[in-house]
Amino acid sequence: MLQIECPWCGLRDETEYKYGGQAHVAYPEDPSALSDEEWAEYLFFRDNPKGPFAERWVHTGGCRKWFNAVRDTRTYEFLAVYANNEPRPDISSLTGADTAGATA
Amino acid sequence: MADLSTLQELRRSPLHDMATEIRDGGVTGDRAVQLVEQPFVTMVSVRIDPDSTGSRGIDEALGAPLPRRVGETSQAGGHTALWLGPDEWLVVSESDAESLVEQLRTAAGDTPAQVVDLSANRTVIELTGPGARGVLEKGCPADLHPRSFPDGTAIMTSLARVPVLLWKVDADHFRVLPRASLAQYVAAWLLDAVREFAPASPSAQAGA
Ligand SMILES: [Zn+2]
Questions:
Q1: What is the phi-psi region of residue A87: left when phi exceeds 0, alpha when psi lies from -120 to 50, beta otherwise?
Q2: Which residues of A touch B86 (CB under 8 A)?
Q3: Could you say which architecture CATH assigns to the domain A17-27+44-104?
Q4: A8 vs B84: CB contact, 8 Å cut-off?
Q5: Which residues lie below 8 Å from residue A39, measured CB to CB, with a gap of 6+?
Q6: Looking at the complex, does the CB of residue A64 fall below 8 Å from at least one CB of chain B?
Q7: Which of residues 6-25 of A touch B (CB under 8 A)?
Q8: With contacts defined as CB-CB under 8 Å, which chain A residues touch B179?
Q9: Cβ atoms within 10 Å, residue A104
Q10: Which domain of life, per UniProt (chain B) (predicted)?
Q11: Is A88 exposed, middle or buried (0-12, 13-18, 19+ CB in 10 A)?
């Protein structure tokens, strides 16, 4: 079983968590000013990198808190967990030189 | 309107209909386990910023500071505060819920806080005896070994795949707090799980 480290509860089984999609997708400042294409971009389009990916997780079976994590989509390895008001960690520092698959 | 004492006579705990089964479902021997429901325990949810003046007020009202880390509990004067999250606790108390809610709301003062009587949300199943930990380990993903789960630890986890609050009083005494709607399922699972902890009887060995 994959274990995920909750920032507050520590290592727990994957089944205690739910996935929340890509992290750092900000709600548009002025939604009514967006074109349909821009609105669709915000609503539906997400990165799909092969490699480290910053995403949201929620610890539903524990403290019920949301947090962010950088997960390598090739290996499922969690490279970092951090609070959802913190900036994305520097991915190159987490993976060394092997960051070719990462997207900005 | 019926007065409160009448309502208290009429109320039924989530495991009321299983009381006999639960009482008779324990096993004896080296790995004895006994089960009992502790119904109608006062439980009050507290949500507040732990670094606020209001939370210091609550610490004083409870007689012990709200625990700050996962698994921790703090106990004083008939109240035990269980850590549920970085800004959420469950106070399990010997006081009556109404006065405890009042007391904690007053203690929080002007700090934004939520103090709610959640006594009806969960029931308490007490597991006692040297086999208690072994029974729970059959259906709980948490490491219950004393080195990582010392006396006085309480965590949100799962038992038999449903969420429960698990609280270890001491090595031979655990409390399982399922939601009311899942209590019968959890109790039935526990009753089944304890059966293999009974000592082998001569008649069973004879194939009866
Ligand atoms: Zn957690």
A1: beta
A2: 8, 63, 65
A3: 2-Layer Sandwich (3.30)
A4: no
A5: A28, A31
A6: yes
A7: 8-10, 12-13, 15-16
A8: none
A9: 6
A10: Bacteria
A11: middle
Residue of A nearest to B69 (CA): A8
Quick check: B79 and B62 in contact, CB under 8 A? yes
| ipTM (interface predicted TM) | 0.86
A9 chain-B contacts, CB cut-off 8 A: 70, 155-156
Tens of pLDDT, residue by residue over B141-161, are 999 999 999 999 999 999 999
CB pairs under 8 A between A and B: 35
pTM for the structure as a whole: 0.89
- Structural domains of chain B sorted by starting position, each given as residue range(s) with its CATH number in brackets: 14-40+120-195 (3.30.1360.120), 42-118 (3.30.70.1520)
B47: its two tokens: 């949500």
| Residues 6+ positions from B48 with CB-CB distance below 8 Å | B54, B55, B58, B87, B108, B111, B112, B113, B114
Quick: pLDDT tens for B55-68: 999 999 999 999 99
